[in-house]
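Model: You mentioned two targets. I'll fold them one after the other.
Researcher: Yes, keep them separate.
Model: Target one:
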Amino acid sequence: MSENPFRYDAPTPPDRLIDRRRELDALQRAAASRTAVRLAAPRRFGKTSLLHAHVAALRAAGHRAVVVDLSLVGDREAVLARVVGAYADLGRPAARAVRGLLGRFGLTVAVPGLSVGLAPAAERTPVPDTALVELLDLPRRLYAEDGILTVVCFDELQDLLGAGRGLDGLLRSVIQHHGDAAAYVYAGSRPSLMRELFADRERPLYGQARPVDLGPLPADEARGDVERLFVDAGHSPGSALDAVLAFAAGHPQRTVLLAHHLFERLDEGADPEDVDLPGVVVEDAYGEVRDAFEAEWWGMPPAERHVLRAVAQGRPPTGRAVVAETGTPATTLSSALRRLEDGGQHLAVAGSERRLIDPLLALWIRRATT
């Protein structure tokens, strides 16, 4: 048995990233010019993998770089803990500075240089904003000492909105003074909330970052990278790869998931030219996700289910046929459609055309609702 190079349950390692050359180049040019970047993409669309590849490339070039994971932060203390854990990984001078700052505010370091230890919420007093301000200002202080650029990638930035009032304003109040010391990437998986942060004139971060699109993987580039990983691991994917990639339709995580299962079948002795093999691979992947799809489906409002079903079937989601079949007013369907489009998780919009982002979800809907 060979080691499967396609890991789909975690961010893809930088050396196994599939394409994203254009996006990496855009991020690196922005870092060189100290231009802030806003990166929004649906879940499982390779955003975090891209950020880690960006950080790896910058570190290899001699810069400081880090990803700060803000997913599901619930309060200011959680934000502080995430920033501490990330900034302490910027090197020894940063780790010393982080420990010194925490000591001045009476906080402890659970693992020296890596993370902050906070008491249970019921037992601790609120951490003052001044602690977070001083921590966020660390890139400027480090630059004053050694002149090295720091690049900070805030992942799932939109979760700041639920962690306490004014955190986006506090963030901007610090980083707006960083000049040549730092460059920032703001990434999120909720496009509507990312727009709220950066496109609302009333928000502190309005207009503060250049948008970089993260679209589907280009077919030719993706095929070349995926085939290389197969060959390096001792397998030729043959024509089965083309069919599998066509089904994935450029969806990054689904591309890796399907490639993983194709690799497993080839490792078991399957013929890469067997015309039935791509269908077997799709069924392997489908079997992994169908239970999750069912749970998500029944957690949705009925009108959203009606809209997604119509789109999966290639029908107008607010048309007369759907209104008649479901007994749902067109205005209710239109509202559900707008919510789904704003959420950016399930529907992709190109002009007047809509499609489901996840090809496996589209398959599940067609099977489950027919």
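Model: Target two:
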Amino acid sequence: MGVGFMYDWIADYPLSSYPGTVRIDGIAAMRDAMRKGTQDDPIYIVEIAPTPNLAEALLQEPSLAALSRVIAMSGSTHIGYDLRPPISREYNVF
């Protein structure tokens, strides 16, 4: 397991103090949540950052796509950051 770029910020936080559920495998947690959806009552997923975990969850269990909806994804294919050229493809759009 590698160390992420936020390690210095979180390194001294005692995980035992976290009031929520701690999941070691985030992709498995995402699949578990997506399985709670149905075609008539899907799980809605809002992705506001790169989506490799969602991609991996769907690669591992493609049938989950029918139980969920992605309702938002940031990105532009027409204008760059700060509303200036050149076009800056957002990670998920790219």
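Researcher: Noted. Anything on target two?
Model: The first helix runs from residue 7 to 10.
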